[in-house]
Specification:
This protein is mainly α. It contains two helices and no strands. The chain starts with 10 loop residues before the first helix and ends in a 5-residue tail after the last helix. 0% of the residues are buried.
């Protein structure tokens, strides 16, 4: 995923990743890391869209 902007890991996500390491899931480690990267990429995209929308809407105050 070269060139993709992602958010930092959150505390709940770190807990989930560590918990999964000690209690292996049915899915593979590759699938777990893929999900984590997808989630952080999606969060970064949502954050950019949110800021873009907030900046483009004129204040009514």
């Amino acid at each position: 995923m070269a060139g993709t902007i992602v958010c930092d890991l959150t505390v709940p996500e770190i807990h989930r990743l560590i918990g999964t390491l000690f209690s292996p899931p049915i899915t593979s480690l590759d699938a777990l890391l893929h999900w984590s990267n997808w989630r952080r990429s999606h969060q970064a995209s949502a954050r950019r869209s949110h800021y873009r929308q907030r900046l483009s809407v004129p204040s009514s105050a």
